[in-house]
Design goal:
Mean pLDDT: 95
Strand content: 5-15%
Structural class: alpha/beta
Order of helices and strands: EHEEHEHEHEHHEHH
Helix content: 25-40%
Radius of gyration: 18 Å
Shape: globular
Distance between the termini: 44 Å
Number of helices: 8
């Protein structure tokens, strides 16, 4: 698949969307921006809700692919998650089907499999074929999104790469993130590969850098052409000195989802 000329970037005003706005054009992508909020410095961005099906259909019209980052990115109430992440993703796929867009890159999450026990020293890396074990309503919505992507491939021939993103920030901020960190530069490399790889059908990949403390198998992402360049290990000594290393006896450290598997949700008001 040649590099898309135009990519619709949903969630363009969010944290990850802001990072990708700055990085993806260097990979040859012209971005059309979409968000519920105005995008600072981007007067041509489309400001609309994913529930606005006419605006969404107009937004996807004529694009070569979609990078779908929009939605609630933290745990919230079930009703809010359903509206933004479940119904919103469905509306996006319907708009793509109606307008003939054949490639979507879906921002899934490691929280779709959050209750999977994390590997210990000597354990094999966690494969993408591990069963869904969501740790939150947010993770549940990402499990739904992956299944929706599979349905639209089987039923309508829309290809998707579902990227189970770890933590994409300029630097890791805690010890758990040493295993799941995705540097912004590697995030752009991975999304570029997902947008341009040939014959992906519905492919699920994990999204992280080539971390020394990696928990999951990156070979499906590498098969798309992803070549991660960064490693969280440069931050390890300082974070471990401040916070201590992962403790096998700490329930917050037992699963991929970390404390999301053990603590009651804190919902925004």
């Amino acid at each position: 698949m040649p590099a898309p000329r135009t990519v619709l970037l949903t969630g363009a005003a969010g944290g990850l969307g802001t990072l990708m706005r700055g990085l993806l054009p260097a990979h040859g992508h012209e971005l059309r921006l979409f968000d519920l909020r105005a995008v600072e410095g981007e007067p041509d961005a489309i400001v609309a809700d994913l529930a606005d099906r006419e605006a969404l259909r107009e937004a996807v019209r004529g694009v070569d692919a979609v990078l779908h980052l929009a939605g609630i990115s933290l745990e919230s109430t079930f009703d809010k998650i359903v509206k933004a992440n479940i119904e919103g993703t469905y509306h996006l796929y319907e708009a793509a089907r109606e307008e003939g867009v054949r490639r979507i890159v879906f921002a899934s999450s490691n929280h779709a499999v959050g209750f999977t026990p994390r590997p210990r020293d000597g354990d094999p890396l966690i494969p993408v074929g591990t069963a869904h074990r969501p740790d939150t309503f947010y993770g549940l919505s990402k499990s739904f999104g992956e299944d929706l992507a599979q349905f639209y491939w089987d039923k309508h021939g829309i290809e998707t790469v579902s990227v189970r993103i770890g933590s994409c920030f300029p630097e890791p901020s805690n010890v758990r993130m040493l295993s799941v960190w995705l540097s912004p530069a590697d995030g752009a490399r991975l999304f570029h590969a997902a947008l341009t790889a040939r014959d992906v059908g519905h492919t699920v990949v994990y999204g992280s850098s080539a971390n020394t403390r990696l928990w999951w198998d990156l070979s499906p992402a590498r098969a798309l052409g992803y070549d991660p360049q960064d490693d969280s290990e440069q931050y390890a000594a300082e974070l471990i000195a401040e916070q201590g290393d992962l403790d096998p006896g700490n329930p917050d450290h037992a699963h991929l989802g970390g404390h999301f598997c053990t603590r009651p949700p804190v919902w925004p008001h």
